[in-house]
Prior knowledge:
Elements: H1 3-15, H2 20-28, H3 32-50, E1 53-56, E2 58-63, H4 89-102, E3 106-111, H5 119-132, E4 137-141, H6 147-155, E5 160-162, H7 170-176, H8 183-196, E6 199-206, H9 213-226, E7 230-235, H10 252-265, H11 275-280, H12 284-291, E8 295-296, H13 303-306, H14 326-335, E9 339-341
Helix pairs in contact: 1-3, 2-9, 3-10, 4-5, 5-6, 6-8, 10-12
This protein binds S-adenosyl-L-homocysteine.
Amino acid sequence: MDKKLCELIDKLERTRSLTCAEYEYLIAHRSREAADALAKKADSTRRQIYGNAIYIRGLIEIGNICKNDCLYCGIRKSNRNCKRYRLDTGQILECCAEGYALGFRTFVLQGGEDAFFTDEILCGIIRSIKKCYPDCAVTLSLGEREPISYQRLFDAGADRYLLRHETADRSHYHKLHPPEMSFDKRMECLRTLRETGYQTGCGFMVGSPYQTAGTLAKDLKFTEEFRPDMCGIGPFIPHDATPFCNMPAGNAELTCYLLSVLRLIHPPVLLPATTALGTLDPDGRKKGILAGANVVMPNLSPLSVRKKYELYNNKLCTGDESAQAKEHLAQTVQSIGYEIVTERGDIKNETNKIP
Ligand code: SAH
């Protein structure tokens, strides 16, 4: 392996930090050998903290109505062909009941930015879930809201919030989003979430249009400095009804490479092997776990709406992506030496680390 690459991997493992220029080198000069070396270190780092446990989250897509027009996203408001839906409280609770019986102890409520979901409505939903399932964590992934709103949802019992920063490079951010969206606002929301007390997740797509090794290096540096509790990364996959319909999809190998790097940057971070990774590569989930991921988020949405939450073409929602197929997923995970566990799966901070 390239001597410099070798040194950078060692430095990363020792210090948990590289400069932006070094991250860029690590990405631009990656090789099969480097990927294997990183995955090996990432795996042992993860095992020291989490053993062979893989945490599962039941993903409930509560609605695809969205006021935003992100250029990459299939449920952007300009997509007139998207069949819109929203779940009511009863439907969401039914999903939780089914998920609980299947062994899920975290429910992730994800959706577009939809004014229908006021604080009052969401607080009601969160309180109901927490009342029925006090041993479960509730994670929200509902985009940008006001600080007071994040506070109210937290007070109602929400534990975690996922808000991908999408890219840590300002000018890249503006190539992916319409002018009315703001890079500063997104980053501010992440800081507010953290200060409010949520376990907070950031993240980015791999291979999004106009992304470079330089912008990815900034994503890694941002993650290093922000020290999120969770970090969601998955390959960009084009959607036919978006301006990026003809852009190439991201790369599964690079996604896995970055999962390993993220594990080494911040050992306790919860890293999902995402649906997008599983959609791009039939073995994506397995490869993601082997590279350092320790979370999977199978789909718990009602079957009748699953196809409608189409962020990108051919998004998987059946097979191992389906919560109902948990036993099969458990076998898949077991076949590579890991174990699906029925636990909330909160972040284990350094203080809990097994020496
Ligand atoms: N409205 C919420 C949830 C967004 S959907 C929010 O703003 O956070 C969750 C994630 O899906 C997004 O953050 C984005 O990174 C990812 N995503 C959207 N379109 C995608 C595409 N075409 N390919 C891959 N991932 C995509």
